[in-house]
Amino acid sequence: MAGNKSYTIVEYFGGDDGYRCGYCKNQTGNFSHGMWSHTMTVQDYQDLIDRGWRRSGKYVYKPIMNKTCCPQYTIRCHALKFQPSKSHKKVLKKMSKFISKGELPKGQEDGEPMDSVCEDAGPREPSKVCHSELKCASITDIEKEAAESPSITETQKDVTDAAPTSSETSRKDPASVPDGRTVASAPKPGLGADASRPLCRKAKELRKERRLQKEQARQHNDGASPIVSPTPTTPAQTSQAKPLEDFINESLPENSSHCLEFRRFLCDSPLEAEYSPDGPEVGYGSFHQQYWLDGRIVAVGVIDILPTCVSSVYLYYHPDFASLSLGSYSALREIAFTRQLQKQSPKLSYYYLGFYIHSCPKMRYKGQYRPSDLLCPETYAWVPIERCLPHLENSRYARFNQDPEAGDARLLKDVGRALVLYRRTVMPYAAYSRKRKGPSDEAEVQQYAGLVGQDCAERILLYRA
To answer: How would you write the chain as a 3-class SS string?
Structure first.
């Protein structure tokens, strides 16, 4: 994808020191490897996130899974096969109701957590990177938008906090428990305290029957022939599930109370914008997605469009609209956007939600976006989440690939082939090690090469002073 003159240039910082965990609040329990990316191609970043890396601004980090207090597993959703759950449909209908009737849900019960990824859940400050640069890399663009539209606040929310908490989910939608377990089995119809009473019937069926009776009575009074009961729906007719796009594009009345618009544009990022004949029309790179309500910006999401996926980075939204579950709503819109891009670029078919943290209950909601896979931290193979959850119930850290013979197929065995940038010259590490003076840094480069894999180690330029 990238031309011969396009390189990714990184500085590697290792990962020996612990820092504060934003999930369990352990002050020194979070460990990760880190790199500062001066520039990066979309293919290199695609390969990195498929090995457990993730970016926060220009800082790219990879949790040390068997050491960190709250292991963070890369999760991807099969966008083309995705079907909204009951809780997802509630979010979409809530937004539709707000736009059409202007009814904003009361209270913050349906709001989302507001943790800051940079301060709590994100990587530590690398010793060689300016802290203000690391933190502001994620907020500069939204501050520019805030200056143009004073109604938006500087509230930041990573996609990791893009859905209701687990307590809310279990309370409102017991059938959609994040870890896939059922809280309690439903009682059988008609077998309650009084078994002599008629079988229980769904409220929806009762309402439908009452409407039918009223219509029959009205037509009878008007002298018309009674309505014939509709033919029962066959299983074949109900098997076709309503796609996500139908829920999003539900027709609204012409006199809707509000108007919601979406705008998309490039934003600052270490990723270089690229275009390909077989790629999406908008190209690859990092984009802002603006959510405008009646000419007022209420949310801004950042996504990375990569060769095989759309990766959600973070979302800002106005706190006045927290009850609309804008985090969940934006995730659903981004899945729909992924499906749209796939029509232009067939291999682009996944939606990456960042990290799944099973040890943090409020982060398990990402498992509801199904079908989805988790990345095995040892073999870097994708495994359906249904097969991963039993292992995570027993241990915070787990190897998902159950083949004991399987290993890292893309491990670089010859560190001499890793590319480095030394004195503005690109060379393999074997040549660099002969030129440099001082103590050997082979152990550090070997660690770096093992973390990024063979493909990236032979393409990415590792900066050496």
So the answer is: CCCCCCCCEEEEEECCCCECCCCCCCCCCECEEEEEEEEECHHHHHHHHCCCCEEECCEEEEECCCCCCCCCEEEEEEHHHCCCCHHHHHHHHHHHHHHHHCCCCCCCCCCCCCCCHHHHHCCCCCCCCCHHHHHHCCCHHHHHHHHHCCCCCCCCEEHHHCCCCHHHHHHHCHHHCCCCCCCCCCCCCCCCCCCCCCCCCCHHHHHHHHHHHHHHHHHHHCCCCCCCCCCCCCHHHHCCCCCHHHHHCCCCCCCCCCCEEEEEEECCCCECCECCCCCCCCCEEEEEEEEEECCEEEEEEEEEECCCEEEEEEEEECHHHHHHCHHHHHHHHHHHHHHHHHHHCCCCCEEEEEEECCCCHHHHHHHHCCCEEEECCCCCCEEEHHHHHHHHHHCCCCCCCCCCCCCCCCCCCCHHHCEEEECCEEEEHHHHHHHCCCCCCHHHHHHHHHHHHHHHHCCCEEEEC
Q: Which of 137-146, 199-208, 252-261, 279-288 has the highest mean pLDDT?
A: 279-288
The rounded distance, in Å, linking the Cα atoms of 345 and 71 is: 33
Distance of CA 164 to the CA centre of its chain: 14
Give me the residue label for tokens 């240039």.
9
Omega cis (within 30) before 371:
yes
Q: Report the DSSP pairing between strands 350-356 and 372-375.
A: unpaired
Mean pLDDT to the nearest integer, 330-356: 97
Q: Enter the pTM of the model.
A: 0.74
Tokens of 325: 């579950």
pLDDT tens profile 360-412: 999 999 999 999 999 999 999 999 999 999 999 999 999 999 999 999 999 99
Owner of token pair 């199904």: 370
With a CB cutoff of 8 Å and minimum separation 6, the contacts of 166 are 178, 361, 362, 364, 365
Residue 294's φ and ψ, nearest 5 degrees, are 55, 45
Residues near 359 by Cβ (< 8 Å), separated by ≥ 6?
23, 24, 69, 70, 71, 392, 396
**Maximum Cα–Cα distance for the chain, whole Å?**
103
Which residues, in sequence order, are bridge partners of residue 301? 289, 315
Burial class of 278 by CB neighbour count within 10 A (0 to 12, 13 to 18, 19+)? exposed
Whether residue 456 contacts residue 4, with contact meaning beta carbons closer than 8 Å, is answered with: no
| Rounded (10°) CA dihedral 386, 391, 393, 397 | -120
pLDDT in tens, 39-74: 999 999 999 999 999 999 999 999 999 999 999 999
